[in-house]
């Protein structure tokens, strides 16, 4: 929270990381509350966020112990920069180098989406007029204003 401590403000942390980064990495102010959509976070969201935060700090502590030698940190392996998140119902750390291979940067989406093969069933549940003999590919179709039409079923 921006107001959790009178001295450790968002601005202070930004200045600290910017100064200590010495040009090796960039910083920017990004308050999560400004990014949230859908109203106030639920107790589940807060609890889950706390758990992920704890796991992230423990992971960083372990990594620092692994790469700290003779007063210096040698964090130059592929797994020194990771993103925490769910992968198949398990909290996992994914190296950024691996995520780069499976990400569609233009559309800011994963290249392969597991739920695309469920579209036929979703259309059936939504009472769409569908043909059960027609195969619907699992490729992502990016919607633009030009492709929207009632004749094509949106």
TrEMBL record:
MF annotations from Gene Ontology: 6-phosphofructokinase activity; AMP binding; ATP binding; fructose-6-phosphate binding; identical protein binding; metal ion binding; monosaccharide binding
Keywords from the named record: Kinase, Magnesium, Metal-binding, Transferase
Pfam family, one: PFK
Record domain Phosphofructokinase: where: 2-59
Enzymatic reactions: beta-D-fructose 6-phosphate + ATP = beta-D-fructose 1,6-bisphosphate + ADP + H(+)
A Gene Ontology biological process term: canonical glycolysis
A GO cellular component annotation in the UniProt record: 6-phosphofructokinase complex
Keyword check for Metal-binding: yes
Protein name from the UniProt record: PFKAL protein
């Amino acid at each position: 929270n921006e107001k959790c401590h009178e001295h450790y403000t968002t601005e202070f942390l930004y200045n600290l990381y910017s100064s200590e980064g010495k040009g090796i990495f960039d910083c920017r102010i990004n308050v999560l509350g400004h990014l949230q959509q859908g109203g106030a976070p639920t107790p589940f969201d807060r609890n889950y966020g706390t758990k992920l935060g704890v796991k992230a700090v423990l992971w960083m502590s372990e990594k620092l112990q692994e790469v700290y030698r003779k007063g210096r940190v040698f964090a130059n392996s592929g797994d020194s920069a990771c993103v925490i998140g769910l992968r198949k119902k398990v909290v996992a750390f994914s190296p950024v180098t691996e995520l780069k291979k499976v990400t569609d940067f233009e559309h800011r989406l994963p290249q392969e989406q597991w739920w695309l093969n469920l579209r036929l069933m979703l259309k059936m549940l939504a009472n769409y007029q569908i043909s059960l003999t027609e195969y619907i590919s699992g490729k992502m179709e990016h919607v633009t204003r030009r492709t929207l039409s009632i004749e094509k079923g949106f």
